[in-house]
Specification:
alpha/beta; Rossmann fold; 7-stranded parallel sheet; NAD(P)-bd_dom_sf; 3-oxoacyl-[acyl-carrier-protein] reductase (NADPH) activity
Length: about 270
């Protein structure tokens, strides 16, 4: 899809990856509908983009039914006014690195609500007002294809987003709407705590800049690529995990002691 003059609704716009995606899309000529929890942060991002008057901000908490309904009404209003949305990017997300046994039920529900339920509900709403041809692009994670200790809830949510994207794309075949999926590996953003960044560095787990992820997102939109996994060897591990999961299990087992060490540091409050 040619992105020039397209209207893009981007959730999680105030996060590291969200800001980078916004900058890439604005440079490509798109007009942005920036969604996030903080009006102040959204305004700062809008002001930093070229031709800021082309973009609008919409503060919303995607885990709140009332805010989703407000977004739905605005999507319908834009559609009826002839200024409908062409692309929806479900980027909002969060995670907590910890043993499942030490997580509260509330934190588990919140993580699943934002990472899995919110993109599903946003996609459902968008089917009512998204322009055709149109695109829904869901941001996943390498952990959607590789179960990793300390991220049980996040892995389950992102795996769900991957299969949801695949299923909905097939369900909408021939409708004029594509559903795409981009799965970054570890990314240098505030989503990863200092403890996680230190662990990744010690274990040799590579990470990408938000700009790297944003460029892949824009390329996927232009080429309408069904799914993209970012990073080597992570995308190789995703394939191996599907066919020979014990190979990946053995590789992660060699990291187990250090993973547990860093989780214990988090729970002890020493880092």
């Amino acid at each position: 899809m040619d992105l020039n003059r397209k209207r893009v609704l981007l959730t999680g716009a105030s996060g590291g990856i969200g800001q980078a995606i916004a900058a890439e899309l604005a440079a490509a000529g798109a007009s942005l509908f920036l969604v996030g929890r903080s009006h102040e942060k959204l305004e700062a991002i809008r002001s930093s983009l070229p031709e800021p008057d082309r973009h609008v901000v919409f503060p919303a908490d995607l885990t709140r039914e009332a805010d989703l309904e407000r977004l739905n009404k605005e999507g319908n209003r834009l559609n009826q006014s002839g200024q409908g949305i062409d692309i929806v990017i479900n980027n909002a997300g969060a995670n907590e690195f910890n043993f499942l046994s030490r997580r509260s039920a509330v934190s588990v529900r919140q993580e699943l609500d934002l990472n899995l339920l919110a993109p599903i509900l946003m996609s459902q709403l968008a089917l009512n007002w998204l322009n055709r041809p149109g695109i829904i692009l869901n941001i996943g994670s390498a952990f959607g294809g590789i179960g990793y200790p300390g991220y049980t809830v996040y892995c389950s949510a992102k795996a769900g987003v991957y299969r949801f994207s695949e299923a909905l794309d097939r369900e909408l075949d021939g409708s004029g709407i594509r559903v795409l999926y981009v799965a970054p590996r570890a990314t240098d953003t505030d989503l990863n705590s200092p403890v996680v960044k230190q662990m990744n560095q010690e274990l040799g787990n590579r990470s990408d800049s938000p700009q790297t992820v944003a460029k892949v997102v824009v390329e996927s939109l232009r080429k309408e690529t069904t799914s993209r996994w970012i990073g080597w060897p992570e995308k190789l591990f995703v394939r191996i995990n599907q066919i020979f999961p014990t190979v990946v299990t053995q590789s992660i087992r060699r990291q187990q002691a250090r993973i547990h060490h860093f989780i214990e540091l988090i729970n002890s409050g020493k880092l």
